[in-house]
Design a protein that fits this description.
about 210 residues; alpha+beta; Immunoglobulin-like; 4-stranded mixed sheet; 4-stranded antiparallel sheet; 4 helices; 12 strands
């Protein structure tokens, strides 16, 4: 009468059974979660890479890849709010239901953000400028008046630069700085300069 030893075979069977149970448990665990996938584009179907995707609840934040896709795995079944934002575009959001073992889809097409801003600017004409216009209007000669407010509001290096801004007036410059004033193309010796009614001699040092 012979006897068979079944110990090693039983042990091997137990190990295989344990591995099978463990693999089955992993499959069941994987089926307990769902996956969310989507793509972000603009209204003209242009890809928007780097868009920020927020998912609540869970405070999950991901960004889209170069093709505008995003994927979120291991989401518990339930309802989620998916919000997408991208600089220069209006934020969009959707309600998505995730089912265990299934792939949920959420695609977005963002519209450009609308920027509307009303700016009202009011200002009164400065007193010096108003007086200058009044003096020009009442003068019997052709007169151009440059008020103090205009002179100080512009980057004038000296008085010649300020006068050079008047119509029909040009400057002769020395090393980039205005030195002589020309009126309607006349040479500087034909221009008479007075300050408070007092004649100023020519800076050229010539009597011509």
């Amino acid at each position: 009468m012979s006897h068979r030893r079944l110990g090693p075979r039983l042990s091997l069977t137990a190990i295989l059974l344990t591995l099978a149970i463990g693999a089955g448990a992993k499959i069941v665990a994987a089926q307990d979660y769902g996956t969310l996938k989507g793509r972000v584009q603009d209204i003209n179907s242009n890809i928007l890479p780097g868009a920020t995707v927020h998912i609540e609840p869970g405070a999950i934040a991901v960004v889209t890849d170069r093709e505008g896709f995003f994927t979120v795995t291991k989401l518990a079944p339930g309802a989620y709010r998916v919000e997408v934002s991208y600089l220069g575009f209006a934020t969009d959001a959707k309600e998505v239901t995730v089912t265990a073992g299934q792939l949920a889809r959420a695609d977005f097409k963002l519209a450009p953000a609308k920027v509307s801003e009303d700016v009202l600017v009011t200002a009164s004409r400065s007193r010096g400028e108003a007086e200058a216009l009044e003096e020009r209007k009442n003068s019997i000669n052709i007169v151009n008046v440059l008020p103090e407010e205009v002179i100080t509001s512009l980057p004038n290096a000296n008085l010649a630069d300020a006068i050079g801004r008047l119509p029909s007036v040009s400057l002769e410059r020395d090393e980039g700085e205005g030195k002589f004033v020309q009126v309607r193309g006349l040479e500087s010796q034909f221009t008479n300069v007075t300050i408070n009614g007092v004649h100023i001699p020519s800076v050229s040092g010539s009597s011509e």
